[in-house]
Amino acid sequence: MKFRLTLLVWIFSLFSPINSEEVILKKYGISVNLPMGWTLKDRGGTSRLFSDSKKAAFFQVSVYPGEKFQTSAEMYSKIIENLQASGEQDRFSFSGLDSIYAYITFESETGRTQANMVLINGTEYDIVLIAFASGGNYDSYLDQLLSCIDSFLLDKDKNCPGPVSQYYYQSFKKKRGLESRIKVKGKAYEIPFDQNELETSQLMIEREFRILKSYQYPLDKVMGIGWSRYYRMIYKDNYTRLNFIAELLRTRVIKRDIDNKYKIAEILAGWIQNYKYRRAADILESDLISPLICSVKEIGDCDSKGLLYMILLKYMGIDSILLVSKEYGHSVVGVDIPGKGARFNFGKKDYLIVELNTNIDIGLIDRDMADPVKWRVVLSSRVF
Questions:
Q1: Cα-trace Rg, the chain
Q2: Domain span at residue 203?
Q3: Residues 126 and 210 both lie in one domain
Q4: Residues 250 and 298 both lie in one domain
Q5: Same domain, yes or no, for 199 and 277?
Q6: Does 5 have pLDDT greater than 80?
Q7: Considering the entire predicted model, what is its pTM?
Q8: In what order do the strands lie in the sheet with 47-51?
Q9: Which terminus has fewer CB within 10 Å in the chain: N or C?
């Protein structure tokens, strides 16, 4: 069963806040990062109920003592019994924990209710994630319901794909293993990859883009909260998927310069700058190729290359920020490293600007894109 699922030295100081509809439950080591407009509706004991702005769709996170249920199957049976529900379910592993992904229907005060659930049988805590809607709202809210569940994070694995993405990838019963060849500093390396994982990473982006496009809020608010969440979800979903490439680069390309942050940033930028520039508006509604696909096929635009660059830098212990400009239709990366050139001040740090669409040195930016007011920080790797 598978569910639908310059060249100019550019130095200035401008604070651009990153907003996020994030709710952190520190006591349990978990958090959720909800779509715009979703707010806390009810707090009861160890449960939190959220709803969208129209109160047409809901998402509930419930935490139970780890000893309450022995298996995820037991959790599912109990919920079905309590709600007098019917449905279908699949077992899967969420970050190594026995879990179930399910679709159920049940009768509520507002009529027939449809829900997607993830049940996680943990050690210290058991967790129930249920996103639901009734009264004919389910189909129109499905993307947001899935996104709520997929935003769930365990503190210990906060750079991993969410439950929906992990389930979807595992629902492929057989890997479609292929190989690609990447070229770094003039040397070629064979990269194995699974076509199913590439598909999974792209599907998540398409879902999140549909949500982003649906927002009916002032543009400035969407560019702040909405864009930030969009890029954050992509970063999180792709981070561990890029582990094998990060390790190859670390051990076979960067090994002699591993203690030189500027050199690392320069090597990675040089590799990505040589990618074939490609947008995907003709085949993808989002027009953003996933960082995983970007790395394996060495193609992409400023957004996909920027996210890939940030993830690889994080693996090397280097923090960075993503800056976007609606006016310029472009994005660049700011990197927390020493060196000369254009810098962007954010969070009491001066980040060196890196342009990835053109083969130019770190710290340079086209003078036609040098107005600081027209740039906004939408993602910082320091939050991961």
A1: 22
A2: 183-383
A3: no
A4: yes
A5: yes
A6: no
A7: 0.92
A8: 39-44, 47-51, 57-65, 125-134, 111-121, 97-108, 86-94
A9: N
